[in-house]
Hints:
Blueprint: H1 2-29, H2 52-62, H3 64-84, E1 90-97, E2 105-115, E3 122-132, E4 148-156, H4 165-232, H5 238-269, E5 291-292, H6 302-312, H7 314-336, E6 340-350, E7 362-371, H8 377-444, H9 450-485, E8 505-506
Antiparallel strand pairs: 1-2, 2-3, 3-4, 4-6, 5-8, 6-7
Amino acid sequence: xxxxxxxxxxxxxxxxxxxxxxxxxxxxxxxxxxxxxxxxxxxxxxxxxxxxxxxxxxxxxxxxxxxxxxxxxxxxxxxxxxxxxxxxxxxxxxxxxxxxxxxxxxxxxxxxxxxxxxxxxxxxxxxxxxxxxxxxxxxxxxxxxxxxxxxxxxxxxxxxxxxxxxxxxxxxxxxxxxxxxxxxxxxxxxxxxxxxxxxxxxxxxxxxxxxxxxxxxxxxxxxxxxxxxxxxxxxxxxxxxxxxxxxxxxxxxxxxxxxxxxxxxxxxxxxxxxxxxxxxxxxxxxxxxxxxxxxxxxxxxxxxxxxxxxxxxxxxxxxxxxxxxxxxxxxxxxxxxxxxxxxxxxxxxxxxxxxxxxxxxxxxxxxxxxxxxxxxxxxxxxxxxxxxxxxxxxxxxxxxxxxxxxxxxxxxxxxxxxxxxxxxxxxxxxxxxxxxxxxxxxxxxxxxxxxxxxxxxxxxxxxxxxxxxxxxxxxxxxxxxxxxxxxxxxxxxxxxxxxxxxxxxxxxxxx
Length: 511
């Protein structure tokens, strides 16, 4: 029992120490608290701070431009349905009755046409009934008492055999759906990059506030010691004025840094949204403790990266699909230059009693219809336009491919340079801190002055800001590389509660 009581006491003590440690870390690591920086009830944080993937998932789910791109895909689906409507069955009906005159008769005619995708053939058929008295020149209108049933087909033999306007519209509608999908993917890719930019800029702004606050706290904490030493005559009175000047200067820097943090949070809120699309303003309590540690990336050969990117980038896929779309139009124009030669086969059968010898009870016909414009200006004009459009798209593809190559080269170069900058900035930060501590030691021994101490502190703070800026450049370069590679992040099912990944954060209250 005694051992259990001791164990319980130890556990309670450890919990109290843990709470105290967390409170101390929060008081030193977090910048200024602002009531306006408050995330609403649908807080997307998963482990006490906002993660970059949560911002990306939130934007993918609710960003207006993504919703607009998804509507363009719906439009393409509607256009596909409209193109399929070109093959809808057409029903026609005609009726006529004699109201006065020598020949009293009645006519009813119901027919249908069914275009098909098979060689451009169109099937037709119908039923008609004509009874009464007819003049000789209208003898074809008369049928047997129970009417006539007819059926037939029109088959293009030259023009419109391989392609016609209906089939071209259908093929282009299919391609338009692909184009809309590639445009949607392009929107997602660019959105992810911009959301990542805004997130890391916000983290950087938070680091700058933390550094500025640290410098201000150092100057303020020195005041009491200065007053005591000045009373004892160890230091000149001017040092108090110098330190007060440093306090005022650092307060101004802190205000500027806090304003930059507010601005970065506002810009980030454009991408951080509720499922309903309402913007969320992140607060300082949502800031991570620093940037993830940088890692040296060993990329595959540059040519392999470029080849993969050319296969994945949505704008390349979109332009290639647009080229196929233009090729369909060019094929249709070539078709329009051909002469029209249509074979028509039809038959009819009358039922009932024939009232006159004008009725042909069984009929079967075959015929050919030929037509061809003489000048061909419509086909020639459309041909010129189609070829020009195809050439334009070829040039666009070449430019897009060149941009992809340059994007890969530039992003890989940026990652390497940023990683080197981080190493150099870390060395600079360590040296600046060493000089700062040395200057403070000399000042305590009376071998230096407060102005030099202030300069060393500011230099150390600037070195910490340079280090944070290098980390920001590194993570922005990673975002550029993902964009350049065409790696698209797809929407998670629980976009606003995305599980946090284990990340090694490189945190220092003055970094």
